[in-house]
């Protein structure tokens, strides 16, 4: 039996097998399920109880949405609020939590597989390659939502870290410009993953210089993750001995394994 509260559940990127076991258990037991029908896979709702109320939230505004959650919980029902990917990135959950807190309604967040990780998996890349890049920046290009002063794409690009762009497919020209201005090369690798983990997923491996054209050629205008990263270079698979993690290095001692001395 679930408690009468709101469970904010990360649905994962699309593939219904990519929800967590915990998230799915909540969908099986919840009295009310509210999901963003434009982004969350409907198949996930197949496990709902036969008498569960399953509602699509795309047509609701924030007030309607929270009103629905609050009244149901106050009447003793459990509510699963299902978000795409992981709720903590571009999930717009803060405003929902604020209303719930004000109404004294408890909530719990269940993480999910973010599209950024589904995209990296589809592209078969490691985002953090030793000595190449050890930092991942999750960000977006500036559109209607203004970027904070200290987070201009150009400044972030200056770090030369793996940069994963959400919500940015229509702003690609600007993205490329800012990266080139920050010193990246036209030949630097980029991978675009459209609808990662869905049956119509597309993985486009290209370069900064060709990114705009490549996306246009594939007709990618939405629901895509753009990963700009030196680690997205396929040549790395061939460079044996370079950029390897110390974790498996024979001479490296760590908490679980004592390294061999390199000299003898
Ligand atoms: N919380 C979500 C992100 C929501 S914002 C997450 O963790 O994935 C919506 C943006 O996420 C889209 O514009 C797109 O950039 C990205 N996105 C969501 N699902 C995706 C998918 N299956 N494949 C590629 N990108 C996706």
Automatic annotation (TrEMBL):
<dbReference type="InterPro" id="IPR014777">
    <property type="entry name" value="4pyrrole_Mease_sub1"/>
</dbReference>
<dbReference type="InterPro" id="IPR035996">
    <property type="entry name" value="4pyrrol_Methylase_sf"/>
</dbReference>
<dbReference type="InterPro" id="IPR006362">
    <property type="entry name" value="Cbl_synth_CobM/CibF"/>
</dbReference>
<keyword id="KW-0489">Methyltransferase</keyword>
<dbReference type="Pfam" id="PF00590">
    <property type="entry name" value="TP_methylase"/>
</dbReference>
<keyword id="KW-0169">Cobalamin biosynthesis</keyword>
<dbReference type="InterPro" id="IPR000878">
    <property type="entry name" value="4pyrrol_Mease"/>
</dbReference>
<dbReference type="InterPro" id="IPR050161">
    <property type="entry name" value="Siro_Cobalamin_biosynth"/>
</dbReference>
<dbReference type="GO" id="GO:0046026">
    <property type="term" value="F:precorrin-4 C11-methyltransferase activity"/>
</dbReference>
<comment type="similarity">
    <text>Belongs to the precorrin methyltransferase family.</text>
</comment>
<keyword id="KW-0949">S-adenosyl-L-methionine</keyword>
<keyword id="KW-0808">Transferase</keyword>
<dbReference type="InterPro" id="IPR003043">
    <property type="entry name" value="Uropor_MeTrfase_CS"/>
</dbReference>
<dbReference type="GO" id="GO:0032259">
    <property type="term" value="P:methylation"/>
</dbReference>
<dbReference type="InterPro" id="IPR014776">
    <property type="entry name" value="4pyrrole_Mease_sub2"/>
</dbReference>
<feature type="domain" description="Tetrapyrrole methylase">
    <location>
        <begin position="5"/>
        <end position="212"/>
    </location>
</feature>
<protein>
    <submittedName>
        <fullName>Precorrin-4 C(11)-methyltransferase</fullName>
        <ecNumber>2.1.1.133</ecNumber>
    </submittedName>
</protein>
<comment type="pathway">
    <text>Cofactor biosynthesis; adenosylcobalamin biosynthesis.</text>
</comment>
């Amino acid at each position: 039996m679930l408690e009468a509260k709101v469970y904010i559940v990360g649905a994962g990127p699309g593939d219904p097998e990519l929800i967590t076991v915990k998230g799915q258990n909540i969908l099986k037991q919840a009295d009310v399920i509210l999901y963003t029908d434009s982004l969350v896979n409907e198949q996930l709702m197949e496990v709902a109880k036969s008498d569960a109320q399953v509602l699509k939230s795309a047509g609701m505004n924030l007030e309607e949405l929270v009103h629905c959650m609050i009244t149901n919980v106050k009447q003793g029902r459990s509510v699963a609020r299902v978000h795409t990917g992981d709720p903590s990135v571009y999930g717009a959950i803060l405003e929902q939590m604020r209303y719930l807190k004000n109404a004294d309604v408890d909530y719990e967040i269940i993480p999910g597989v973010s599209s950024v990780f589904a995209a990296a998996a589809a592209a078969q890349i490691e985002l953090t390659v030793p000595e190449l890049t050890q930092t991942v920046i999750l960000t977006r290009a500036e559109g209607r939502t203004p970027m904070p002063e200290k987070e201009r794409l150009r400044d972030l690009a200056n770090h030369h870290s793996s940069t994963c762009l959400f919500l940015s497919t229509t702003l690609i020209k600007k993205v490329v410009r800012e990266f080139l201005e920050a010193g990246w090369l036209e030949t630097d690798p980029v991978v675009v993953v459209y609808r990662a983990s869905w049956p119509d997923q597309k993985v486009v491996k290209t370069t900064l210089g060709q990114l705009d054209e490549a996306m246009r050629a594939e007709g990618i205008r939405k629901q895509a993750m753009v990963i700009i990263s030196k680690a997205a270079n396929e040549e790395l698979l061939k460079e044996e001995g370079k950029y390897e993690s110390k974790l498996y290095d024979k001479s490296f001692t760590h908490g679980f394994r004592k390294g061999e001395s390199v000299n003898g």
